[in-house]
Amino acid sequence: QKNHIPVACKPRYIRVNTLKVDAEFVIQELGKANLTISRDDIVPDILALASGIDLHDHPLVLNGSIFLQGKASSMVAVALSPEPGWKVLDACAAPGNKTAHLAALMRGKGKIIACELNEERFRTLEETIYRSGAPNVDIVHGDFLDINSRDPLFKEVHAILLDPSCSGSGISAQRLDHLLPSYGKGKGADACNSERVKKLAAFQTKALLHALSFPAVERVVYSTCSVYQTENEDVIKSVLPLATSLGFELATPFPEWHHRGLPVFDGGEYSSIPIKQLPSMTLRVLLLKHIQLVFCLPF
Ligand code: SAM
């Protein structure tokens, strides 16, 4: 397809951890190794390098100054745009790249509660947060679905990032099978109706409904690295009646981004973002924002 850059030619993205350094510093440091670096024109603080560059052992990675985080993954926290001082819940947090990004956007102010169910991944989350230097993250080892939204600790949560377990069908190694010629047809269509994907979608829906139950929540971003409608538009569509009755409406993060979702519900094509030509994942962001705040919060 015309829009799809072959995986081998895709840039490698890094996210600058602005809790520690700024983009200028990183450009200078990496420039010393004669690497060609460019800023991204949509997501602040991410930089693109030529494909195939391996920075895993680079000191800036090891000391948490930069994160090897793709563009799609970096769009999620920016879509939520938490303000410094807010209380934010990252519902399914490990390995913690988006948690660390939230902390950077909040300039380390306010509170992020990062929840992770899996014990091993919980330890990775701890390491990521330590490496990021984020001073405002509390890590909870447990099931997001078991969190009591009325508990005093959570009743003031302003914003929720929900990036639940998914099929991973948008991750680049697998992606070409699903996207060509269209992910809604052929092989992809069978896979997206598999029992596994249906189970995942049931969990994703439950988790999104739970996110909407937090009494003070104003913004919810739902994201996956799946290309299946079952895990994206269908999940959003099923919660929309309740969300609307609670005063939420779909928002349009990154209006300049042209690769949009399927028009399976009113506004679906504007509020979901399949990111098909990016290196590490295909991801959709659907954002629900409390309707009363549309007029008073810049977004
Ligand atoms: N947001 C993460 C990041 O960008 O680094 C990636 C999250 S990953 C897609 C989903 C995570 O949710 C996994 O680590 C998984 O163990 C965790 N998870 C799955 N079910 C959960 C639940 N019920 N409560 C909390 N975490 C859960």
Automatic annotation (TrEMBL):
Swiss-Prot/TrEMBL catalytic activity: a cytidine in 25S rRNA + S-adenosyl-L-methionine = a 5-methylcytidine in 25S rRNA + S-adenosyl-L-homocysteine + H(+)
Keywords attached to this entry: Methyltransferase, RNA-binding, S-adenosyl-L-methionine, Transferase
Organism the protein comes from: Canna indica
Family from the record: Belongs to the class I-like SAM-binding methyltransferase superfamily. RsmB/NOP family.
Protein name per the record: 28S rRNA (Cytosine-C(5))-methyltransferase isoform X1
Residues given in the record as S-adenosyl-L-methionine binding sites: 92-98, 116, 143, 163
SAM-dependent MTase RsmB/NOP-type domain location: 2-277
Residues the record marks as active site: 225
GO biological process, any: rRNA base methylation
GO molecular function annotation: RNA binding; RNA methyltransferase activity
Any one Gene Ontology cellular component term annotated for this protein: nucleolus
